[in-house]
Design goal:
The chain is of the alpha/beta class and 228 residues long. The protein is built from 8 helices and 6 strands; from the N terminus they run βααααβαβαβαββα. It folds into 2 domains: 4-15 and 83-213, Rossmann fold; 16-80.
Length: 228
């Protein structure tokens, strides 16, 4: 039986991925360039950034520094519009608290950033533990951050169900030995979630029945809830 739920953060609890994407699109457009969305998508759910969005701006003239400052200003101006919990987050947390399940976050983002944003979202005190990408040696899709979250919950990984919006996060959770329910975001809908034990359109569809109905990793006939 599942004893704990481990949430990803960006794109699952709050739509920071869209704010980041829009900021890059605007920056590229200002310079007469087309933003390579599919290449950038490789970065989602990871902190090792296999794609460098500053690539076109790198040179000896310091234009990359100017570009990153402009991008940060754009993201800072755009992000507040997205700083609300995504649909289903609060009701699901209420249910888990009522049922006394342990709850953690396993994010590729820095611990301090996640903790600060959890507070800004009005969710402080809702999570028993946070594990950040800066606290582990290997980024998702390696399992490190999920194993750290389980350790901080004092729950074995096989007794946890992960909730993820990215393919890299899904692979990380499965590598950690957890069940994983995929919750694709607007940004990640084109990713391959075939490894998931269930796929749902948003967190409003993640009930206790769905959490408990998924099989252990490697099992057959797992429950699947496909996006509408």
């Amino acid at each position: 039986m599942t004893h704990a739920v481990v949430f990803d953060f960006d794109g699952l609890i709050v739509d920071t991925e869209m704010a980041e994407c829009v900021a890059w699109r605007v920056l590229y457009a200002r310079r007469g360039l087309v933003f390579p969305f599919e290449s950038w998508l490789q970065n989602v759910g990871r902190n090792d950034r296999p794609f460098d969005p500053l690539g076109p701006f790198r040179g000896a003239d310091g234009s990359a520094d100017d570009a990153v400052r402009e991008w940060r200003a754009l993201e800072t101006s755009i992000e507040p519009a997205f700083l609300i919990p995504l649909p289903g987050v609060v009701p699901l947390l209420d249910t888990l608290r009522r049922e006394r399940w342990k709850v953690a976050i396993a994010s590729s983002s820095r611990h301090v950033r996640v903790a600060e944003m959890v507070g800004r979202l009005g969710l402080a005190g809702r999570f028993d533990a946070i594990a950040g990408g800066d606290e582990v040696p290997r980024a998702k899709p390696s399992p490190d951050v999920y194993l750290l979250a389980a350790s901080r919950l004092e729950v074995p990984p096989h007794a946890c169900t992960a909730l993820e919006d990215s393919a890299a996060g899904l692979r990380a959770a499965k590598a950690a030995g957890m069940r994983c329910i995929a919750v694709p975001s607007h940004v990640t809908r084109s990713m391959d979630f075939s490894l998931a034990d269930a796929v749902v359109p948003d967190l409003r569809h993640v009930t206790l029945h769905v959490l408990l109905g998924t099989e252990a990793p490697g099992g057959a006939g797992s429950a699947r809830v496909e996006p509408a």
